[in-house]
């Protein structure tokens, strides 16, 4: 019986050849010898990968790939078939065992049993076929070659990053590394850490990686989806093998591995309700987010469950509070939990009884309001709750720490690296002060406050930090207000120094310079155009997989991080995510706007009405293209008034026209345009600082903290 060929979609062919998808469509129309589809549908055909590679090679379009690139390509073929978890698991097994030659299923199973415990082997080897398909053999061979040359942990994390955006990852929580680290900071040093909905190890991996050398904490995790548990286990085993802390590659569990180390890593399939894999365990710390689609706890047999210690059984509309009570039952007295909660949980009326009980008994220690794009899956923002199980003789703290993240937004512009590192440092310092009983003062007073428990025990028991913390528009420390004019003067002086002062060109540009539209350039492969894919009628899924940050037209115009959100379907196009050097163009705006994506915008989804122009850097300079697109002539050619009352312009991106200049000329002009863009962004921030000064002076003058001239 002939084996099914390894297939690849048109998007995959474009990645192999390093071109845009429209170029592949052109090849199919213009070349009669282009391979015919062997699977898929007329709308999404699939081609034999081997035939495609041979055709590309004959045409001189096949780019040589490094081993890691080859492995990624193999994984993408599984992703196109809706089997990304299988690809990641098989590659992980090859990386874990590092075989000298391509193994058969039996030999791979023996190799896995030689390096992990029987319990873990049972999880990892479930569903292993009796014989490999052609695609599986190719993937294992690619993974084996990469394991010989690259850091295996880094390779698996590279594949995991691909998997997190692939099809079929419903309910998978994704958060910045710094935020996961902050959650572990808030739980404090722990000898045992549990995540009762661990997914692929989002929170457990940092717990193991950041542990002191020599003796990592006991890591316990469970999830309802076996494929997630398998991936999480592979990530943790590889990380542990690199650290030399237990059963990894080369340290056989079945042939002399350290049983104590194996006992300190336990993952299983299960959930808080109804089958808790760790029902008899108590731990020092719990981290994580609520399970996706939790509802089994509403069954009658849980009505008198011993875990309902705080306010009784939660209403059906409060699954997160049911999960929080389950978490508290797993903690030892004095143990802490850092939980990523949807922001709505803090204020829903149906949960006020349980929230009030958590506050009254001193269980709730802190609530941190996070930026709205913190975690995929929380479209309306997220909060970080810190809970602590009371000790028998302990006296509960008289106050709860409430923190908002608005002030961190300003730090994002000025601080290099991950903006969540700024958040982590600020909240960690505030938590340290809160534990010692110190209040907040100075600039901290606008983002945090120790709120007396009695103040939170009103009829609403609303824990939303914004309701209790003054924020930027509220009270200011007088010393900070008095320093604001000097800071604004320094900004204005820096703007004057950096003011662009261009010279007249010695030779004016000829008037007959050739031009081309973006639509024409996209057909040549010089650039590709991307936008949010419209959902076809009748294809609404009953439960979207997750909600991700999305850029709006206003975000692009203001140069700010994504403020919108977007439900992401299982087959979402990866190209609809913003990449470095993308030129972003709102299709509806007051003026024609085109800006190169900022560091904060990279990775966000393209929201409705936002186009991304992705150029070939060998042919086009992104900064020059962004500047050329906004030329006044383009407003006349490609823009037309919309039917909205605002009179905004509707932009036809394909009709925007560029002058065709040598790329070295583009780069020289693009460098100047980039500096001009930075100056404009600083001008905007200076204007915002001036407005903040005016608001602060107004509030301080009304409060009598500042003197009027005749006072």
From TrEMBL:
One of its GO terms (biological process) is methylation. It comes from the Bacteria. One of its GO terms (molecular function) is methyltransferase activity. Gene3D superfamilies: Vaccinia Virus protein VP39, Winged helix-like DNA-binding domain superfamily/Winged helix DNA-binding domain. Keywords: Methyltransferase, Transferase. The keyword Manganese does not apply. InterPro entries: DNA_methylase_A-5, SAM-dependent_MTases_sf, Type-I_RE_MTase_Subunit, WH-like_DNA-bd_sf. This is N-6 DNA methylase. Residues 158-406 form the DNA methylase adenine-specific domain. It holds the Pfam family N6_Mtase.
